[in-house]
């Protein structure tokens, strides 16, 4: 078996919406039919996928009767059992239907805000029935194009009220969900509230149940904003708030492309994979992407699925090679000089430490003269990524 053949133990997941995608864009009609949910389960199981994630819309559509929904859920659960797949994460579609054209939880209309809560609670019920333990919130319509008509301070308060309400609902129902908030700077709104992972982390600290709320960063969303996704995930990981992650590819400054993971910026993807593996991230590795619009046959569409997983596994192996490389080890040792006397001065504040730092004589010229071989290290990384180790 190849080192790059995915196993269920890799925890790779795909959203139902990724292969339901029919290739339509704002300027062109569909180029393929997209898979129905049951067919998708069969296709993904054959490729070594661990699980699928879903919006309520992806499985149930909109406006179906309770009896119709029950029938769909029963068939879906049976196919999950037959294929051995699971549903680690669920979420609510609060952006497709026109009722949400001016927001869901942050809408100016209280009827819309109440309907958004109703729809989310019902979706949480379905997610729990399917076994989901993480519930993601992406505020795709929570924003504005006309700031004169939306009070951004009030919008933040409304978002907090909704999150607090839904946290209490989860606790009351005994669902044991972890909530993961997903940031995005723009599209489909001109400006989306709380546009970055850092902004979400700040918002979470204001919630009544902040302990059960974390983030779901997405490669494309931070990259659209011109930010370093690796750094955003590192902040969330260090804070203990990385509850879920969306992997894909994205060119800076473009629309939300949702490209195959690894298709763009292999170096940033490398650092991301290396960090997730080295720091023992145990959540799902979710691919929130879709095949290119040019993909219209099974071979190309499923090649997209295989490519996402293969790229992650290749980068995982490259990270192992990088960390074991003697040249890398030597350069990193030079970039991370040891000094036990100085280390003893650092850490938690004490009056003694503060006094010792104040009275310490530092050899500023000597420290400044030390070489910092970042050029060599970066080139070595490039060589390893290109498969050159001479």
Comma- or semicolon-separated keywords:
TIM Barrel; 2 domains; single chain; alpha/beta; eight-stranded parallel beta sheet; 47% helix; 390 residues
Description:
There is one protein chain. Helix content is 47%, strand content 9%. It has 390 residues and is α/β, with parallel strands linked by helices. It folds into 2 domains: 8-323, Divalent-metal-dependent TIM barrel enzymes (TIM Barrel), CATH 3.20.20.150; 325-385. The strands form 2 sheets. Strands 8-6-4-3-2-1-10-9 form an 8-stranded parallel β-sheet. Strands 5-7 form a two-stranded antiparallel sheet. Helix 10 (266-278) links the parallel strand 9 and strand 10 (285-287). Helix 12 runs antiparallel to helix 16 (374-385). The mean pLDDT is 96.
């Amino acid at each position: 078996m190849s080192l790059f053949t995915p196993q269920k133990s890799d925890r790779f997941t795909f959203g139902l919406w990724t292969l339901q995608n029919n290739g339509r864009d704002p300027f062109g009609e569909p180029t393929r039919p997209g898979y129905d949910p049951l067919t998708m389960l069969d296709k993904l199981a054959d490729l070594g996928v661990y699980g699928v994630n879903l919006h309520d819309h992806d499985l149930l559509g909109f406006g179906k009767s309770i009896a119709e929904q029950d029938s769909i859920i029963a068939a879906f659960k049976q196919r999950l059992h037959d294929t051995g797949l699971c549903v680690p994460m669920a979420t609510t579609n609060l952006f497709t239907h026109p009722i949400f054209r001016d927001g869901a939880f942050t809408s100016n209309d209280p009827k819309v805000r109440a309907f958004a809560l109703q729809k989310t609670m019902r979706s949480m019920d379905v997610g729990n029935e399917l076994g989901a333990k993480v519930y993601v919130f992406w505020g795709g319509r929570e924003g504005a194009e006309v700031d004169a008509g939306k009070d951004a301070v009030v919008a933040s308060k409304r978002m907090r009220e909704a999150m607090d309400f839904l946290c209490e609902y989860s606790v009351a129902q005994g669902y044991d969900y972890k909530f993961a908030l997903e940031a995005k700077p723009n599209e489909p709104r001109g400006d989306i509230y709380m546009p970055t992972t850092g902004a979400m982390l700040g918002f979470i600290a204001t919630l009544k149940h902040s302990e059960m709320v974390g983030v779901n960063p997405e490669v494309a969303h931070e990259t659209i904003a011109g930010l370093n996704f690796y750094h955003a995930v590192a902040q969330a990981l260090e804070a203990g708030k990385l509850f879920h992650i969306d992997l894909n590819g994205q060119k800076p400054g473009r629309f939300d492309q949702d490209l195959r993971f690894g298709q763009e910026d292999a170096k940033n993807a490398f650092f991301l994979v290396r960090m997730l593996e080295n720091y023992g991230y145990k959540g799902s590795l979710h691919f929130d992407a879709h095949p290119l619009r040019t993909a219209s046959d099974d071979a190309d569409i499923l090649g997209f699925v295989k490519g996402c997983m293969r790229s992650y596994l290749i980068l995982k192996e490259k990270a192992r090679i990088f960390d074991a490389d003697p040249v890398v080890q030597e350069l990193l040792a030079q970039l991370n000089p040891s000094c036990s006397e100085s280390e003893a001065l650092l850490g938690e504040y004490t009056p003694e430490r503060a006094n010792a730092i104040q009275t310490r004589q530092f050899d500023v010229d000597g420290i400044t003269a030390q070489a910092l071989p970042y050029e060599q290290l970066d080139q070595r990384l490039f060589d390893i990524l290109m498969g050159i180790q001479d």
